[in-house]
Design a protein that fits this description.
Length: 842
């Protein structure tokens, strides 16, 4: 073959390989006719030059220049090369041992490069290193997976900076790690293909390049077939391979075909694709250049990739309308391990409710904080209200409430439960359900079928969308008791109707059983949560067969179709837990714009409640219907729980249980009653027959006297016989045994109220109390009971013998008013510091 034919063919191959050197052939033909036949050398060099120029057109700058001559300070490209620049230089074509033009292979955007030699061959190693520098310098948005089963990662050692910056994965050196690379690539591929199938463009997604410097020795048939399948499907999903060491071995079955590939054969001579000329592969680039390129790309990526909560909040606060839904940015798309576009999540007709799952420490709290700050900055409190419930130990939502250090709060937040009781959770759900009913009524009357329409018809009515977050929601179902039943009923109703009325639920759980609990309750509930957020360790959250998952904290799979395969989006969200200052600033900005000073109700299950801190105590004044204040109800507003005294028979109060908290309840009752009587109008008799209560009784006497009231301390033996000149409250610490005069006690219970005499007594033993009041026949004589640490069956005996579910626990009491027919779970008022002193026993 003459050199001319060779060059002509070379030009043709060059065009094929690079796809953009089509002018080369044309130039060649023109040159050949113009030049004299005997002017061989000149013609040859001119043709070679033209070929070089043509090759430069196909792969210029970082993709085609001689790296040995490239200045390390040459700027990296900041934009992905245009379509048509798919060629990259791998070496130089030789003619008569002279380098004539760059040898190019079509790679990103075109196909794969497959080489029979591996990185154990220094020629291949040099080429790979050079290729990596070229591609890294030319592509700002690239994902790399590196595999080296022959030099144990040595060939990629210079790329450590890329690994550190998350551009490349850790080099896989064995077949297991290779399998992981393939699994990740397959997932990414499926995800992108699904996006494309939905008609969305994937042109802005990063390329994924898998560079295999040599296959690990254990690689079997299935891995080879997976590689071939990836090669087949890869280019349409921006995935490309550089596959070295791909050669048939003796006594092994033949390798599967790799489609879309340019072949590189590394025998004595190196041949590239159909190029008829031998090729000398690129040598390793100068180390200074490698370092400069990798370090500056890594730096750029780190800067671009840093996601902050600031990226989630709008520049101007509260500009959005929630008429048709709520939408916020949660993070950046990440189909692999590099950053992409913003990912939005919504509460709207398509995704009215969300389900979030992930293991402990999987980032659930941080994800929720990101969402809540994103929403609270976009929508004003007239557009959005928040109810936040957390059933575990933790401080997740206290972030939104006033504290000793920072009096600000997020004005959208109506109620926050931290380590809430299930009862509190059920109360919040019940309140939301009542709101549904209210909205349903409004809609009916207005003739609207959608919230958006109702808002148009009744602009004067405040109708914010409501988002209720329930963290560790499965706690609600624990026990499978009456409360669990109520919780399920509320959740079902809210999930089913919330969409129409603008009430949205976010249920989160860190346990598999949490999700299963919901699933097993009723399929219908589970199906009402179309937006699924799978954090690391999430199980059973997505559809069977949808195995999308993330492993690193800070990432989430977001699926907007009830977990359906093909609707996953992998995203990265910022770490709100390391943005204290920013969050505090946002909170204060939002707070400064509030138009109401109503603080969120904060229910912390472990908090003591103090009478002095209750504004309703401060507001007490003399009245004809005095009410003893006893504690704060476990309800949405944490209402004050009281017990009213009037002249009807049985208006007495018995506090039952061995806990010293009973003494505090008595004190609160007496002190609050004292405020409701003019001094001199009533008398307080205080008796302490329970050991340990003397001091408390004395303190009470002091306090009542200081308030100007008549107050007598009664001695044992004279408690029931002391003369009563005017209406009297007998505050009795330790009434067990009725001071040896149960008959007198019964008489007082029966006739006292008519003359203004009421007993407020602490009985340590429930059975003793029952005996003292004359057994079950005397039940009606004491209408008020505060149950502390007494057993459910004892309480049942006192109140009427039916089955009850009282679950005695520290810092809770059950306030029963038999006349009013009410039973209220409450946190009793205690003396400050009381809970630090006592270890309650049942
Ligand atoms: N997006 C993120 N980027 C970086 N780190 C994060 C991110 N999200 C969470 N983390 C880290 O993980 C830690 C645990 O996160 P988080 O408290 O949200 O987990 P969790 O799932 O709520 O755990 P638990 O349920 O045990 O409270 C955080 O303190 C934070 O350091």
């Amino acid at each position: 073959m003459t050199w001319r034919t060779e060059l002509e063919r070379a030009a043709a191959r060059l065009r094929d390989a690079a796809g953009a050197a089509d002018r080369a052939e044309e130039l060649l033909v023109r040159a050949a006719t113009r030049l004299a036949a005997d002017d061989t050398d000149r013609r040859r060099s001119e043709l070679a030059q033209r070929l070089r120029a043509a090759a430069a057109g196909a792969a210029s700058g970082w993709l085609g220049d001689d790296l040995a001559a490239t200045d390390p300070n040459t700027p990296l490209w900041t934009e992905t090369p245009r379509t048509g620049a798919e060629a990259v230089r791998v070496g130089t074509a030789l003619l008569d041992d002279e380098p004539v033009f760059p040898a190019l292979a079509g790679l990103l955007g075109k196909g794969h490069l497959v080489c029979d030699g591996d990185a154990a061959d220094p020629r291949v190693a040099g080429m790979l290193q050079s290729l990596l520098v070229r591609i890294t310098a030319a592509h700002p948005n690239l994902e790399l997976s590196l595999v080296d089963g022959v030099t144990l990662g040595q060939v990629f050692a210079p790329a450590t900076a890329l690994v550190d910056a998350g551009i490349a994965t850790t080099v896989a050196t064995d077949h297991l790690a290779l399998a992981r690379v393939l699994t990740a690539a397959e997932k990414r591929l499926t995800e992108l293909r699904d996006v494309a199938a939905r008609g969305q463009s994937i042109a802005d997604r990063p390329y994924h390049l898998i560079v295999v410097a040599g296959l690990p020795p254990e690689v079997g048939k299935s891995t080879r077939e997976r590689l071939a399948a990836l090669a087949h499907a890869g280019p349409s999903a921006r995935c490309h391979l550089v596959l070295c060491g791909w050669r048939d071995l003796p006594h092994r079955e033949r390798l599967p075909a790799i489609e879309h590939a340019t072949r590189l054969e590394c025998g004595d001579e190196v041949r590239l694709g159909g190029l008829p000329l031998p090729v000398v592969l690129d040598a390793p680039p100068p180390p200074a250049l490698v370092r400069a390129v990798f370090a500056s790309r890594a730096e750029q990526r780190r800067e671009a990739g840093e996601l902050s909560v600031a990226d989630l909040v709008p520049e101007v606060l509260w500009t959005e309308s929630s008429r048709d839904g709520l939408t916020t940015v949660i993070g950046r798309d990440q189909a692999g391990h590099t950053a992409g576009g913003d990912v939005e999540v919504s509460f709207d007709d398509a995704t009215p409710h969300w389900l979030i799952g992930g293991r402990t420490g999987g980032g659930k709290t941080v994800f929720l904080l990101d969402v809540l700050y994103g929403l609270a900055t976009r929508y004003s409190p007239d557009e959005l209200e928040l109810y936040l419930l957390d059933f575990k130990e933790g401080v997740s939502f206290t972030e939104f409430t006033p504290s000793a250090l920072d009096p600000s709060w997020i004005p959208h937040v109506k109620a926050v439960g931290v380590e809430s009781d299930r009862e509190y959770g059920v109360a919040v759900l019940a309140a939301l359900r009542a709101e549904l009913t209210r909205r349903a009524g409004l809609m009916k009357r207005a003739g609207a079928t959608r919230l958006a329409r109702l808002r148009e018809l009744r602009p004067e009515v405040r109708l914010p969308r409501i988002v209720a977050v329930v963290d560790e929601f499965h706690v609600l179902f624990a026990g499978n008791d009456r409360l669990a039943g109520e919780a399920v009923a509320h959740l079902e109703e809210l999930a089913r109707k919330g969409r129409s009325y603008g009430v949205h639920l976010v249920l989160a759980s860190q346990t598999i059983s949490g999700i299963e609990a919901l699933y097993s309750k009723k399929d219908s509930i589970f199906g009402q949560f179309p937006l699924r957020v799978a954090l690391p360790g999430a199980k059973h959250l997505l559809d069977e067969g949808n195995d999308a998952a993330v492993e690193s904290v800070g990432q989430a799979v977001i699926n907007d179709a009830g977990g359906l395969k093909g609707r996953n989006r992998t995203c990265r969200f910022p770490d709100a837990s390391s943005a204290d200052e920013l969050l505090a600033r946002l909170r204060r900005d939002l707070w400064a714009r509030r138009d109401s000073d109503e603080e969120p109700v904060v229910f912390r299950g472990f908090d003591e409640q103090h009478l002095d801190a209750d504004p309703r105590f401060a507001a007490l004044a003399p009245t004809h219907a005095p009410r003893a204040l006893l504690g704060r109800a476990v309800d949405v507003r944490m209402s004050t729980v009281g017990y009213q005294f009037d002249r009807s028979p049985g208006r007495h109060l018995a506090v039952l249980g061995t806990s010293i908290v009973a003494a505090d309840v008595l004190t609160s009752a007496a002190v609050s009653l004292a405020r409701q009587h003019e001094p001199g109008a009533v008398e307080f008799h205080v008796a302490a027959t329970a050991a340990g209560a003397e001091e408390l009784a004395r303190d009470l006497v002091e306090e009542l006297k200081a308030a100007g009231h008549e107050c007598r301390e009664l001695e044992p033996g004279a408690v029931l016989t002391a003369p009563r000149a005017r209406p009297v409250y007998l505050v009795w610490f330790g009434a067990d045994g009725a001071d040896g005069q149960p008959g007198t006690l019964r008489d007082l219970l029966l006739h006292g109220p008519a003359t203004g005499a009421h007993v407020i007594g602490w009985w340590r033993g429930a059975r003793r109390f029952l005996d003292d009041i004359g057994g079950s026949a005397g039940r009606e004589h004491v209408a008020g009971v505060v149950a502390l640490n007494i057993a459910a069956n004892d309480l049942a005996a006192i109140t009427g013998g039916y089955e009850r579910t009282w679950d005695a626990r520290a810092n809770r009491c059950l306030v029963i008013d038999r006349h009013a027919g009410t039973e209220t779970l409450a946190v009793p008022y205690v003396r400050p510091g009381r809970l630090d002193e006592v270890v309650e026993t049942r």
